[in-house]
Amino acid sequence: MAHSPSVSDIQILVLDDEPDLRTLYELTLLREGYQVEAAGTVQEAWDLLNARRFDLVITDMRLPDGSGIDLLKGVRAQQRRERCIVITAYGSAENAVESLKAGAFDYLTKPVDLKQFRAVVAAAARGTQAAGAGFSASTSAPLSDGGSGHGNKGEQALARMAGDSAAMRMVRERIVKVARSMAPVMVRGESGTGKELVANALHANSHRKDGPWIAVNCGAIPENLLEAEFFGAKKGAYTGAAQDREGFFQAAHGGTLFLDEIGDLPLAMQAKLLRAIQERCVRPLGGNQEESVDVRIVSATHKDLPAEVAAGRFRQDLYYRLNVIDIDIPPLRERPEDLPALCQALLGRIARDSGQPERHVTASTVARLAGLSLQGNVRELENILHRALALSDGETLELSDPTHESGSASMPLSGHVPLGAGTPSSDTVSTPRQPLPGDLQGYLDEKERQILVRALRETGFNRTLAAKLLGLTLRQIRYRIARLKIDAPDMQGDEADD
Fold first, then answer.
1. Which residue numbers delimit the Response regulatory domain (predicted)?
2. What average pLDDT does range 292-297 have in this prediction?
3. CA-closest candidate to residue 406, choices 370, 443, 375, 441
């Protein structure tokens, strides 16, 4: 078993050309129990680095004979093990992003808050302790712990992303590579590609794997509750707030906060989120004091955020903060060779969840599935397999027509649904002997889609009128239209938001 170093084993190099600040950082770290060396120039730092090994390097950005970025790039070029924390000037978002892209573990802004300084150093130190306990210093891949299940968490998370295509191998390799830093990651991909699986694998392969994992669907939270949900609320902050409650940031302290469908956040909330990320502190609704939070942000979207920025619907400064590192997940149509492995993995999971015996997918079934558009990607594939499994007998799964397994309409369960072309009639009557749906959520989604389509048609595609007809707010109907991927010509009603 590898030795897990204590705080007193951690060797830290502090690099700053201002003697007072250098002494302040050094004394703060010594009081925490770390071993510390200090340097005032890049050359002095390299002399120390060439003479011995360190665990952490804390460097100012601007130095008399170079920059912290130069030192950081040199450490990476030599494939050294030191984790780097960069100190940047206040408000210099460009330098902060540049340092993270160059491989910094994290950054701090001047004037440095010593409480935040200690927290960031502790987080980086925990990472070096994880490296000693379960990660190889010469490779980025997690080591097996002999099957105990605890240290193997990262490998298990990666294995859930079935498929051995070149594209998926690249995704897994990138996850392992970027999981080690604190840099924010943006996961991009079409709906149903598995963005949350990727985000969870990032968490499971990081030094935060034993900390909390909080996943949030930004598009599913009513706008008037966003601030309380994200930052918490004090007792009496609003009607019904009978006690203090923590928000997503507080719940994710010491771990990872996954913000799914980040593109759905309204602009006002985007500004508050940006400040929380920059300042690393939040103020609960109704509170007077800010609370420090230590979270790593992973976000995801199926939207084209650069286009959203250009249209004024997404803040450019927030986009730059979130998109320090990006991971793109290819749609299923671009990796058909993954279908057999995906089918088998999904069938195994469905069987375990439902208590049914596991079935095997045949080559003919895979061929039929490959002929479908599968615009809903892996989620749509899972829905199809759910229905087929419920209606199949024997040990193998055969699909005569995957889109008609439970009497559903001949259309994908997910993906964009154009009105007027292949949309099911709203007055379809189910016979009493129709089999129970093998995928209840997919069945309910289809019924909801039919009702929305009918309401939109009857109101001339005016969302405001359709919402009133169904007893919904405009925001609620827009959310449902987006979630169910309903396309319609010249829809109106955005001017009367609730």
1. 11-125
2. 90
3. 443
Determine contact, residues 1/44, Cβ cutoff 8 Å.
no
Interatomic CA distance for residues 232 and 227, integer angstroms:
7
Strand partners, 417: 486
Give 224: exposed, middle or buried? Use CB within 10 Å, 0-12, 13-18, 19+.
exposed
CA distance 188 to 170: 14
Which residue do the tokens 């985007």 mark?
270
* The token pair that represents 81 in the structure block: 């093990």
The alpha carbons of the chain give a radius of gyration, in whole angstroms, of 26
Q: What contacts 66, CB < 8 A, 6 or more positions away?
A: 41, 42
DSSP-assigned letter for residue 475: H
Dist. CA 59–CA 63, nearest whole Å: 9
Is residue 349 within 8 A of residue 207, CB to CB? The reply is: no
* Confidence class for position 408, pLDDT limits 50, 70, 90: very low
CATH classification of 416-498 is 3.40.50.300, yes or no?
no
Three-class SS state of 144: coil
| Least confident span in 6-15, 134-143, 426-435 | 134-143
Tokens read off for 219: 């598009």
Mean of per-residue pLDDT scores for the chain:
80
The answer to whether domain 7-134 has CATH 3.40.50.2300 is yes
pLDDT in tens, 317-357: 899 889 888 899 999 989 989 999 998 888 888 888 777 77
**Range in 7-21, 135-149, 295-309 with the lowest mean pLDDT:** 135-149
- Residues with Cβ < 8 Å from 45, sequence gap 6 or more? 13, 15, 39, 57, 59, 71
* pLDDT at 426 (0 to 100): 37
Judged against a pLDDT cut of 70, whether residue 486 lies above it is answered with: yes
SS3 444: helix
Q: Which two tokens stand for residue 295?
A: 């979270």
- Measured CA to CA, the distance from residue 299 to residue 196 in angstroms comes to 9
Q: Do 7-134 and 416-498 fold alike per CATH?
A: no
| pLDDT tens digits for range 42-80 | 999 999 999 999 999 999 988 999 988 889 989 988 888
Is the pLDDT assigned to residue 231 strictly greater than 60? yes
In contact, 478 and 463? CB cutoff 8 Å: yes
Write down the number of H helices and E strands in the chain: 19, 18
In this structure, the dihedral spanned by the alpha carbons of residues 492, 494, 496 and 498, taken in order and rounded to 10 degrees, is: 130
Residues in the chain: 498
Beta carbons of 238 and 285 less than 8 angstroms apart: yes
Pick the CATH number of 332-415 from 3.40.190.10, 3.30.980.10, 1.10.8.60, 1.10.10.60: 1.10.8.60
